[in-house]
Structure formats: C-alpha cells, structure tokens
C-alpha cells in the first residue's frame, strides 16, 4: 500500500512551493502525492522504482513525478542518495503566465510540464553533466536560499527561477533526444518507434506537420510512418496531430480566458471555422459550449 503525501504537508495554498535537500541512506516506502515533484540527484546512487518500472539513477539525473504516480528509492547497504526535492502544484505557474512571458513555444510539454500531459516521458529522466548540471544545481540552490530568507519579492524570484529551470530542461531534453534518435532510432521495434513518433508529434503539434521530414527523422518511408503509428495507436500522423491540438485547446479553454479564435491560432489552426468543425467532431460540442460546461462543473 503506497503512502500519500498531501500538498498541505509541505506548502500553503497561497504559495504552493517547497524545496529542500535530502539524504537517503535506506529504502523509502512507496508513495505518491497530489503535487508535482522535480528531483535533482546531487550525489550517490539508487534504484528508482517508478510506476512498476526500475532503473538506476545517479548524479546529474533530473526527473519529474506527476501527481498520483507511485515511486520509491531502493538504496543498497552502505550507499546514500543525496537529492534536491522541488515540490509545486500546477497552480504555481499558470499557463496564462507562460503565454504572458511568451514561453509557450520554448517549453517542451512532454518533459517540463508533466501536469499538462500525463503521457510517457522519454526514459523517465534527463541526465545532465558539466555546465548543464552546474547551471540547474545553481538555480535550485538559489531557490532554496530564497525560500529560507523569504526576503521581499522572494516568491516572484522563485517563480522566475523555476520557469528558467523548466526552459533549460526543455532545451537540454531536446538536445539529448536528437542525439539519442540519431544513435538508436534504427534499432527500435515498432512499438517503441510508435511511442517516439507520438512523443515527437506531441511536442511539435503547434507546427505545420511535414510527414516526409518526420519519416526521414525516424528512418522510415512516409507510408511506413503512418502504418507503424496506425497499427500501434489506431491513428495516422495527421489524426494524431489533430487529436493533440484539440486536447491542448481543451486545456486552454478550461484554464484561460483567451478567445476561441486566439486558441485556434495558438494550437496551430489559421481557420477558426475549421477548428470549430474539428472540435465538434472530436469533443461532441462547440468550443464555447465546452468552456461553459467545464467551468460550471469546477
């Protein structure tokens, strides 16, 4: 039976954020929480058990645990694991702030904003080294200091530093993904290849989709690309793109006051009428009705 950690145990509703260094020298109990947990491994080693899977973690690893995901650490006798736990809720950095800062296109939602997307994350972690690791560590430590001192404006500075970390992680993730794709994509089976293709389409769902370019990236023909994806997911490349865009539009309708025409443009549609028809086809009602009904149920 997994133990649940609740938000109120670490942070208050007004400023849902907490960060602290921990040293673990024994196994942790399986647990989950109702907040987002960003973990940075400073020193040591352990086995991370995450949603029924096991993999080794070590210095420079960064990973994010979504609300509701069960995980724990298994630590061998005589070993320790030093980590920085950064806890926050989605309310801390609202999507409207990202729009205001013009950061939406800079963020890789598959990795850095898991509370917007609960699908598979690439290998569950990002491994940093050198300057990249030092930069993220410095930002995390500066947030620890800001929270400890609680000087004037500390909440604003913490939010900005967290956004900076998320942008940097997105940048590092994209870089490592390109390297991994280049090195190993040819050896993937269809199931894993379909997952990678789906992840790529999700990260680039706002852009014009060039099937030929995607096929070249994954070392298959355009026909194979659609066949692999459809066999594993039931959807073609274009159907997947439209599904991703509509899911993103639904979230924007729920959480922002952006106009429907504006949301259509934000998710990649130049034609509001086409967006409306597609939305009705996939969701069963127009965007305006969806917005009204979801907000009434909050």
Give the secondary structure arrangement, pairings included:
Layout: E1 3-5, E2 17-24, E3 31-33, E4 36-44, E5 46-50, E6 53-57, E7 61-65, E8 71-74, E9 81-88, H1 95-100, H2 109-112, E10 126-127, H3 130-149, H4 154-184, H5 190-203, H6 211-217, H7 222-233, H8 237-255, H9 260-266, H10 272-283, H11 287-296
Parallel strand pairs: 1-3
Antiparallel strand pairs: 2-9, 4-7, 4-9, 5-6, 5-8, 7-10
Helix pairs in contact: 3-4, 5-7
Query: What is the ordering of alpha helices and beta strands?
Result: EEEEEEEEEHHEHHHHHHHHH
Average pLDDT reading: 81
Q: Report the radius of gyration as a whole number of Å.
A: 20 Å
- Biggest β-sheet description: 5 strands, antiparallel
Overall description:
The protein has helices at residues 95-100, 109-112, 130-149, 154-184, 190-203, 211-217, 222-233, 237-255, 260-266, 272-283, 287-296; strands spanning 3-5, 17-24, 31-33, 36-44, 46-50, 53-57, 61-65, 71-74, 81-88, 126-127. With 298 residues, the protein is α+β, with helices and mostly antiparallel strands. The strands form three sheets. A five-stranded antiparallel β-sheet has the order 2-9-4-7-10. α3 (130-149) runs antiparallel to α4 (154-184) and α5 (190-203) packs across α7. The longest helix has 31 residues, at 154-184. It is globular, with a radius of gyration of 20 Å.
Task: Describe the structure concisely.
This protein is of the alpha+beta class and 298 residues long. 48% of the residues lie in helices and 17% in strands. The strands form 3 sheets. The protein has a 5-stranded antiparallel β-sheet with strand order 2-9-4-7-10. A 3-stranded antiparallel β-sheet has the order 6-5-8, with no helix packed on it. A two-stranded parallel ribbon has the order 1-3.
């Amino acid at each position: 039976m997994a133990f649940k950690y609740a938000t109120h145990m670490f942070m208050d509703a007004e400023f849902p954020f907490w960060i602290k260094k921990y040293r673990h020298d024994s196994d942790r109990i399986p647990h989950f929480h109702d907040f987002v947990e960003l973990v940075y491994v400073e020193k040591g080693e352990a086995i991370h058990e995450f949603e029924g899977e096991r993999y080794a973690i070590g210095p420079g690893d960064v990973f994010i645990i979504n609300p509701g995901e069960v995980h724990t650490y298994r630590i061998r006798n005589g070993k320790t694991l030093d980590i920085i736990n950064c806890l926050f809720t989605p309310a801390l950095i609202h999507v409207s702030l990202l729009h205001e800062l013009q950061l939406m296109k800079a963020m890789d939602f598959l990795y850095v904003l898991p509370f917007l997307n609960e699908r598979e994350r690439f290998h569950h972690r990002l491994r940093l080294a050198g300057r990249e690791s030092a930069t993220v560590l410095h930002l995390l430590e500066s947030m620890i200091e800001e929270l400890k001192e609680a000087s004037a404006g500390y909440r604003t500075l913490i939010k900005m530093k967290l956004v900076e970390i998320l942008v940097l992680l997105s940048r590092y993730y994209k870089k490592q993904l390109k390297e991994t794709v280049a090195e190993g994509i040819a050896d993937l089976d269809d199931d894993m290849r379909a997952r990678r293709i789906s992840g790529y389409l999700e990260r680039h769902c706002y852009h014009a989709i060039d099937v030929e370019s995607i096929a070249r990236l994954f070392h298959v023909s355009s026909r194979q690309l659609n066949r692999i994806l459809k066999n594993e997911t039931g959807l073609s490349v274009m159907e997947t793109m439209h599904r991703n865009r509509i899911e993103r539009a639904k979230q924007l309708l729920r959480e922002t006051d952006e106009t429907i025409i504006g949301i259509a443009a934000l998710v990649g549609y130049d034609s509001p009428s086409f967006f409306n028809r597609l939305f009705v086809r996939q969701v069963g009602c127009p965007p305006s009705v969806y917005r009204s009904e979801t907000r009434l149920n909050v």
